[in-house]
């Protein structure tokens, strides 16, 4: 498409432009909408440096996300592999995933304190059960031609799970995984807000209590950028992994 | 002679009464189903295969244990090559002689990934591995779709070799494209009249 990059540029700068325009045209006070310049310079006020906090947060996010995705797909394959697993695990997964993950955070604090384990687990449990159900649903909806084929050759469920179910479900899971990413970002922030001494969520928490609106804005922007980069990365990995679409 | 026997089949599909007191007891080993589109050829193949389950009170039903059905959409795994797709079902290295020509015919594209192949190439691989698997009853739904004339000839020869070599095997297929084949002469059955059908009429030409 012609002018593609122009349209992307417009979309990218739209919100900053609105922010700046609204701020200066209507001369809104700093306590309602922070000054863009203040937001950018607030980087210097943060000790230890913003990079330190960002690294911590991204690390927690990535570990939680990777384990959550792996566990979710594994559980999904288990549900598909055997009816016994399905009957036992399905009610458990269904009930666990219906609990809003953000509501479980106090329990994780209670059980794991301020430890890193608790923060990883919040993310892992927040996304794994949903992914398990999504994986299972994809496999349940296997096209008839494959079902007929496996039945024709009387293939073992084990072989079918490894050689078919895993690659097939991966090829259909991209939307769920992208959704899991934004879920994981939200969980990482909240877990750090509630029980942490370091990380971007912790910074938001302290900035909030001192009414440093510029720092809150800065961190919101940083999270946005992280989410965007990771989302693009996931899409890139998928396009390399799933060539057959 | 086949061990396929369907008697007194009653079957409804979405309120459409497709078969009523229907019987199909093929006497030949190679059978072709004919009839206009939507008359129930695919449904009958799925019933024979067992993909559509029939309870005992819907029909009395005898069929071989080892059935293999190929539908119109191919079931190759797109992320595997043609060769890997064939190996998915068997590790047989010694190809029976009736498949020799067929094997050579596949060689130009057998190492390509299935998603890079044309419909016709995928169909050729799919039929090849089914013949290699040697089922007792091979059920084919429009197997010649997407195939050009030369490919149809290769497949036809292989099918005829398959029937000659495996004397206990049988084939039931539906096809619109079998008129001119010099290699195949199946017994033709027609869905005649209107639904619900109660039998297939052997067409002795």
UniProtKB/TrEMBL annotation, chain A:
Residue ranges of the TM segments: 7-26, 58-80, 92-114, 120-139, 179-204, 210-230
Cell compartment(s), UniProt: Cell membrane
Keyword field: Cell membrane, Membrane, Transmembrane, Transmembrane helix, Transport
Membrane topology qualifier: Multi-pass membrane protein
Main localization, broad class: membrane
GO BP annotation list: transmembrane transport
Domain called ABC transmembrane type-1: residue spans: 54-234
GO cellular component terms attached to this protein's record: plasma membrane
PANTHER family: ABC TRANSPORTER PERMEASE PROTEIN MJ0413-RELATED, ALKANE SULFONATE ABC TRANSPORTER-RELATED, MEMBRANE SUBUNIT
Family: Belongs to the binding-protein-dependent transport system permease family.
Protein name in UniProt: ABC transporter permease
Originating organism: Flavivirga rizhaonensis
Taxon lineage: Bacteria, Pseudomonadati, Bacteroidota, Flavobacteriia, Flavobacteriales
Automatic annotation (TrEMBL), chain B:
Annotated coiled-coil segments of the chain: none
Database matches in SUPFAM superfamilies: P-loop containing nucleoside triphosphate hydrolases
UniProt keywords, alphabetically: ATP-binding, Nucleotide-binding, Transport
Classification via InterPro entries: AAA+_ATPase (IPR003593), ABC_transporter-like_ATP-bd (IPR003439), ABC_transporter_ATP-bind (IPR050166), P-loop_NTPase (IPR027417)
Molecular function GO labels: ATP binding; ATP hydrolysis activity
Pfam families named among the record's database cross-references: ABC_tran
Record's keyword annotation contains Thylakoid: no
Residue stretches making up the ABC transporter domain: 4-205
PANTHER family with a match to the protein in the record: ALIPHATIC SULFONATES IMPORT ATP-BINDING PROTEIN SSUB, TAURINE IMPORT ATP-BINDING PROTEIN-RELATED
Protein name: ATP-binding cassette domain-containing protein
């Amino acid at each position: 498409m012609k002018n593609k990059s122009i349209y992307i540029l417009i979309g990218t700068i739209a919100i900053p432009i609105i922010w700046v325009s609204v701020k200066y045209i209507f001369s809104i006070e700093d306590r309602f909408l922070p000054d863009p310049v203040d937001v950018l310079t607030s980087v210097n006020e943060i000790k230890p440096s913003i990079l330190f906090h960002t690294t911590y947060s991204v690390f927690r996010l990535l570990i939680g996300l990777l384990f959550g995705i792996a566990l979710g797909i594994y559980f999904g394959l288990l549900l598909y592999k055997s009816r016994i697993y399905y009957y036992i695990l399905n009610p458990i997964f269904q009930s666990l995933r219906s609990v809003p993950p953000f509501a479980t955070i106090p329990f994780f604090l209670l059980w794991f304190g301020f430890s890193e384990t608790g923060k990883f687990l919040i993310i892992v449990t927040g996304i794994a059960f949903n992914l398990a159900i999504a994986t299972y649903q994809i496999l349940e909806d296997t096209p008839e031609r494959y079902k007929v084929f496996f039945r024709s050759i009387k293939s073992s469920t084990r072989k079918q799970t490894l050689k078919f179910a895993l690659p097939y479900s991966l090829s259909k899971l991209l939307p769920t995984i992208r959704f899991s990413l934004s879920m994981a970002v939200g969980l990482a922030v909240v877990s750090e807000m509630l029980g942490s001494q370091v990380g971007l969520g912790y910074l938001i928490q302290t900035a909030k209590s001192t009414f440093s609106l510029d720092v809150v804005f800065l961190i919101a922007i940083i999270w946005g950028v992280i989410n965007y980069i990771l989302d693009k990365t996931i899409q890139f990995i998928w396009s390399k992994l799933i060539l057959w679409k | 002679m086949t061990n396929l026997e369907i008697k007194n089949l009653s079957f409804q599909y979405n309120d459409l009464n497709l078969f009523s007191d229907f019987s199909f007891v093929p006497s030949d080993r190679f059978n072709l189903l004919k009839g206009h589109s939507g008359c129930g050829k695919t449904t009958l193949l799925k019933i024979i295969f067992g993909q559509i389950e029939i309870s005992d009170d819907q029909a009395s039903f005898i069929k071989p244990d080892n059935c293999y059905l190929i539908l119109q959409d191919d079931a190759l795994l797109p992320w595997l090559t043609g060769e890997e797709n064939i190996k998915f079902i068997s590790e047989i290295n010694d190809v029976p002689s009736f498949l020799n020509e067929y094997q050579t015919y596949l060689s130009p594209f057998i190492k390509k990934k299935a998603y890079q192949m044309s419909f016709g190439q995928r169909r050729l691989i799919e039929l090849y591995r089914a013949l290699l698997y040697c089922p007792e009853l091979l059920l084919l739904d429009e197997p010649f779709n997407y195939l050009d004339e030369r490919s149809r000839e290769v497949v036809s020869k292989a099918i005829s070799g398959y029937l000659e070599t495996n004397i206990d095997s049988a084939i039931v297929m539906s096809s619109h494209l079998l008129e001119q084949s010099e290699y195949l002469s199946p017994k033709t059955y027609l869905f005649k009249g209107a639904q619900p059908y109660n039998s297939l009429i052997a067409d002795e030409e």
